[in-house]
Structures
1.
Amino acid sequence: MTELEAFPEDWGRALAVVAHPDDMEYGAAAAVARWTAQGRWVGYVLVTEGEAGISTMAPEEVAPIRREEQIASCAVVGVTDVEFLDHPDGTVVEGLELRADLAAAIRRHRSDVVLSINHHESWGGPSWNHADHRAVGRALLDAVRDAANPWVFPDRGEAWDGVRFTAFNASPQSTHFVDVTGTFDAGVESLRCHATYLRHLQGDMADPASFLRGGAEDAGRRAGVDLATTFEVIG
């Protein structure tokens, strides 16, 4: 008996909402590749363009590069619908403006499932999560509820109450797994598309294949499969 449950796959549409280009690629993209190969629709909404993510390059230079790299990355895993909300990278504010934009995106795409990445303070152990990740994740949970209420943000589209659950990849409180043994390589290639960002990294995260494999093997051992990625399912 494994400590994680299999991720529910009785749905047709999923919307991934994250703060930055490359957020989905550090683990979740391999699951997206699995789902699009099964004929499911997955769309991406990026809250920022990741323009403040490279300290040695000016934001106005970085933004268009990271947009194009994200679009190419999405294409590798079968995603063609990609939107950017243009909130300022590094200083995303958890509040009504963000909630309204996220609720509008949920209403616009009318998905069954909403995906994101870890929104907790820590990644597990002595670590500290990015402020944008924390703000987006918490606002997203509120926005799912907001999207279903016709009296909240009534000027931001027709209410949508069809979201069954929200799932956060790489959470230290993960509850479910996705077997990505067959789509792991696609996940690696999707991360490699972020070439400009990767060139400015050091350490393990600069090598997509080895970094992702270590996490996938660890999750696989917990799930009883060769390679997996994990999600905390809420709702």
2.
Amino acid sequence: MPKPARIPDVLAAVDLGSNSFHMVVGRHSHGQITIVDRLREMVRLAAGLDEHGRLSKEATDRALAALARFGQRLRDMRAESVRVVGTNTLRKARRKGAFLERARETLGHPIEIISGIEEARLIYAGVTQTMPLEPGRRLVVDIGGGSTECIIGDGYEPRILESLYMGCVALSAEHFPDGRIAAKRIERAIVACEVELEPIQVPFRGVGWEHAVGSSGSVRAVAEAIRELDPAATEITREGLTELTQHLIKAGNVRSAGIASITEERWPVFTGGLAILTAVFNALGIESMRVADGALREGLLYDMVGRLTDEDARVRSVRSMSERFHVDTEQSARVEATVVDFLRQVETAWSLTDPLAEASLRWAAHLHEIGFDISHSSHHKHAAYLLEHADLPGFPREEQRLLACLVGCQRRKVALDRAEELMPPWDGKALFLIVLVRLAVLLHRGRSRVALPPIRLAAKGQSLELRLPRGWLGEHALTRADLVQEVEFLKSVRFRLRVY
């Protein structure tokens, strides 16, 4: 793997949540991150998602306006210093490519759509890195606008992670559309949440925990409201939730409740968040819960530090996948060395200097044979399916899809439809990476431990010259036959390969 890069002094993380957009800027020093700036915009993106999964113009306008303000702060920051992630609503949204491209232009940085499990992992990291370590397991609950994440972990390591399709925006819209609060409405909302929680009750209670912690704006808002009603309250308790709920029912709506800590912008989604938290207490048998300062965005900051050292979660995921599917590590190392050598020779001509290009090629080399554990026939297709659909901690969805694309296109017919579905710039550059992977795999098909001779590549546009030492192909008839066939495979996707 490449040598660890120097960690930038200033890092920024942007969380495009279903309810709010958040940005945090932190200064890194001696392994710790000190938050120096925070920005938050209530966008309620989930409220702009229609029944067909399309984002409304009003929602996208609100989102882009918020991102424009964030972009002013990020304008002078380098790419490796910033991560931007989208969560549940952007996971669900259809035909979002145009919006993501406009958002990237507005922010000046690409947007990663992360899975619910990856969101849970990052939330746990944000909570544990901003709270003192203590003995015993910790349960972390994060209530967002479109999803709720529940995690149990030991120290800094999560043991069990879940992401549930219930959030304060959607639940409030469904059960409290006009803002009116009544006992029966609250009860129906809580029961609906308990149904969502039912599948995780047994496994979570089976693992158990000693400390319960809540993160996110919804949990914090509930805690502040409880404290306003009872100044002696230091944690969220069952009694506190009940008292707050009865107070809201008596008032009839959040506006009339007279709780100053509940801001006007949170009125429309507060009751949904309260119902979810009550259901979590009921389903998991929680008695009390503290509130954490850290959440997803702080987790992103610490994950960035990990990526720039030897603690990149993606590297751990690749290693784990390799071990799980009994990969021949000697063979994968041979393919890795060759594909990286090829990249060095063409990266300027093909504009493949983005660090993700090299990382993706290395990961593809390590995992290109995981499909053998399922079937030797079409093993590359099985491998691609596993990589696209597995939970790979550390990987945003787009990086996971790129990796699946490289592995799925390693041999036989080049299925460029996979590449065309990627987000820019990888929709245009994936073919070049695919060619490098295919050639590296092809040249090591014999699994020989004898090193390859010096091979020279010259790239220009959608063409590549491959030069081998004089006479080598004559001594390796099978490789020569494979390369002749490869010329035809690539010709079908309008790529010209010439072998000398």
3.
Amino acid sequence: MAKDAATQAEEGGGSKKKLIIIIAAVLVLLIGAGVGAFFFMGGEEEKISPEEEQAELERQAKQVGPMVNIDSFVVNILDDEESRYLKAAITLEVSDEEASMELTQRMPQVKDAILLMIGNKTFSELNDLQGKIQLRAELINKVNSLLEKGRVKRIYFTDFVIQ
């Protein structure tokens, strides 16, 4: 009889533990379902068609950002036959005013990077349209690597003379 009482006490304690575990598991599932429902149903975004999305991207691309001018400079460029020079002036279109201010503050770094990059180009690389387009892309990447708060969207060569 003593064994029966001890066994019943253990079984009662065990079933209480099982009941607590089941209740905790049900609560965790309910909380998880509530959180999932909140994220999936809570803030439905307005559905837009691919055509509307494309039109929005084109509109943003046509917007002109703040411009930062880099005055005319002269750089020696590489050529096997003779000494060559490039005289250029550049205007940088940036994403916002904050980027414009940062670019102005970092102008010595930007000019240094531009001069070093152009100085390593050859006459044949810069003489044709494809070379100028490639230089533009390289300059955008280089200047953007210097910026922390914004980015350069486009570069315009406002003066470009090779002699």
